[in-house]
């Protein structure tokens, strides 16, 4: 097992990092945060022009056809830059749903647009507070019409279409719904990180197309969310590493009592804890990337492991980055809060930390039971 990226993948990482350092500095993130814009359209178009949005989309559907490992590399760099773009919703989720369960016509219509950045997709699962699951879905489908409310939906205010989990006569099924058509109302929701918008979607007999097999929706959704969990974990570990670098650099530059604050034992302990947390998360993310690319049987456990570890690391590092910066770290003028906002946003995406911890326990227990049998 080679838990490292290839030289070509590392070159891709360097290329993406250079592009984002130029096109997505903290000032660009702040511009979205402080305006009515919900994402950086110019940056998103630039990612499409470089072929990054289509990295894991086959060439037959307008993509580059590289693979999920390359998408992991890209995700990490997007996380470092806390890029205000709907890549997670469109590429980690919507595109994966189409690739896994979409019909040929659905793939042909939407995948080229997603790869070109001409359309935004999203996944509508949650229906308010509480753990999202097959027993908590009340949005209903009758025939080819959908009714009910989904919230929060990531990038729902900007998306052109959504993959919606709904209850029908067969159980839980997935439906592709155009969000620009009739029967759909949208409302932007306030959140801790406005650069990754959330929305309420209300469906009132909205036209819908079945995605995949009726009644197989939860099984499909679980597979796609495991894939997305690994990709989102790479975003989180990228953000954790950047928060650690910010704290380290400040500790070396900031002087107190005639010497850098990084020389004080309390600051050393904080930085050391951040390093351990981020390094452990990276190790688990590499395990998730390996399973995503080479071992589908291990993906459920690997995805949950990466998700839990990366969520913990990003929240830990973003919080302690503020602590190392002291009183200035809490101010609007410093960039620390940008990473703290994103860490809390991603901590709830795809389900909370406690949800993934429970999933990890259940999946490991099931694996142990099979081994014992």
Keywords:
alpha+beta, Butyryl-Coa Dehydrogenase, subunit A, domain 1, Butyryl-CoA Dehydrogenase, subunit A, domain 2, Butyryl-CoA Dehydrogenase, subunit A, domain 3, 3 domains, four-stranded antiparallel β-sheet, 11 helices, globular
Largest sheet: 4 strands, mixed
**Total beta strand runs:** 10
Q: Any idea what the CATH superfamily of the largest domain is called?
A: Butyryl-CoA Dehydrogenase, subunit A, domain 3
Q: Indicate the low-confidence ranges by residue numbers.
A: none
**Average predicted confidence as pLDDT:** 95
Rg of Cα set = 21 Å
Strand numbers in spatial order across the main sheet? 1-4-5-8
Distance between the termini: 27 Å
Helix residue percentage: 40-55%
| Morphology call | globular
Would you give an account of this structure?
The chain is of the alpha+beta class and 373 residues long. The chain has three domains: 97 residues, Butyryl-Coa Dehydrogenase, subunit A, domain 1; 95 residues, Butyryl-CoA Dehydrogenase, subunit A, domain 2 (Beta Barrel); 155 residues, Butyryl-CoA Dehydrogenase, subunit A, domain 3, CATH 1.20.140. It is built from eleven helices and ten strands. The protein has a four-stranded mixed beta sheet with strand order 1-4-5-8, with helices on one face. A four-stranded antiparallel beta sheet has the order 2-3-7-6, with no helix packed on it. A two-stranded antiparallel sheet has the order 9-10. It is globular, with a radius of gyration of 21 Å.
